[in-house]
Amino acid sequence: MRMFSSDKWRKSGFAKLREGKRVQAIVLDGRFWQDVSICLRASQPLVKVLRLVDSDEKPAMPFLYFEMIQAKEKIKSNFNNVEKRYKPILKIIDKRWEDQMSRPFHYAAYWLNPQIHHSHGMGFNYNDPKVKVALYECVSRVAKDDEEKFRIMEQLH
């Protein structure tokens, strides 16, 4: 902001251009910075998930669904748990997840990940119907017959 009150800015050619004046007006407008704050509070948790997915340090699959749950909880917290402030953002995230990322193996990897079982007991939900159905779908794909499918499911419960 100090940039626009400096002699260097006033003497620059940009300060006299229509585009320069427009940029100055935007940057000095308090609403712009409120919007930037909203964007940062919404995007910061998602950037963490993207870094996980883009990392070569550890496989992301077993953690992706859990990290998305955590990211959504962090977004709620970043908006002081005021539903009308975070709900539109989570609606977009949920729609994208369901359209592009929601696959049975994400849920199954979440359910089968022992690190999540032991480290994040509160975040782990055995009874989430989506997770259970996805786990069953994955078992159905890998089991050679109904007997094997039954034995696998019996061990998982």
TrEMBL record:
InterPro entries: RNaseH-like_sf. This is Uncharacterized protein.
